[in-house]
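Hey everyone, long-time lurker, first post.

I ran two proteins through the pipeline my lab uses and got sequence/structure pairs for each. Pasting them in order. The first:
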Amino acid sequence: MPNATKIERVSELKERIESATALLLTEYRGLTVGEITELRRSLRDVDASLAVIKNTLMLRAANDAGIQALDGLLAGPSAVAFVNGDVVAVAKRLKDASKQFPALVIKGGYLDGEALDAQGAQALADLESRDVMLSKIAGLFKAEMSRAAAAFVAAQSQFLALLEAYKEKVPAEGGGGEPASEPEASDETTSEPEASGEPAAADASEASEATDETEQEA
């Protein structure tokens, strides 16, 4: 029958497992208390906490949390990094620490419902961190926005050029049509007096003849 201390410890570990985004398991055999303390401080900077655990209690807590994939990883003196931030940044920090403290060994991990062996956990350290990837994505997005803006400006300039060309073309065509219509109107105007002038001349002749006849009779 487990005592109250062990029950409390299992419950605490279960909560930490469930709240973590990932777990990275290490073996700290050969590390001094001072080195472990330094490692803890280093991991706090990347939003992770390191806990030296008993394998049996960690295994029970993992099972209570619905994780059975850690059974083969919990052997020997174990310390678990509970990751609350970027798992890649934490893996990089552990890899750097293993170079500083050769006794530190990355044994594996747990991420996105899958267990990671030692090779898989160490491979995380070779990936780009979330900040770097976000920076690259932002750079790509900015570049796409710049290209889109340039395309828009080019299209706008082309449209304005076509509009100006259209404006120049329309008055030229309209101006050329007006002189053509003016002579027609002039011809009609000049022809009317000629048509009305003939009857006028005839009337004048008739009036002259009538006058001559009147003078003769007189």
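...and the second, right after it:
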Amino acid sequence: MSPDAITALFAEAAIAFTPITGNPTDDDLTALREILTPLLFDIPYDEAGPLVGPPFMHNLIGLIEPEAAYIAEWNEAFPRPAKPPAYDPNIAADATAVIRNRMEAAHAVKLADYATYDATERALSKVIRGAIDEIWYKDLRHARTFYNTVTA
């Protein structure tokens, strides 16, 4: 799924959800999770990649699911990936064509996974901020970066 498709998917979800007025209750947050959870499960995400391990080693539900619940389901904490370099620095200059192609394909999977993760994190955060009045999360605001460094 492309980053643009992910952004559009969450934009549609934001329109479908009635913003929470006042202090969010557990019922309000559960309703928000019920809208977001199926979307997160449906987004293909596989940090390890099909060339390295079994498909779907992790799932983006880890962005909003409590860590203990995620560990119980997926056997480890959700790894927030670091942005990979544009080109894999581990490919040796004298690598054969076959090795080079395999390593480039594996790196392309990492790039695509990071783009998926980044687009989902941003869109998800935007939906949550749009659904809840800013007064309830204003203390997370950074003076220079605003909410850009706050995870969903």
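Reply from user beta_strand_b:
Welcome! Quick read of the second one: The chain has one domain: 3-140. Residues 49-53 have pLDDT under 50 and may be disordered.
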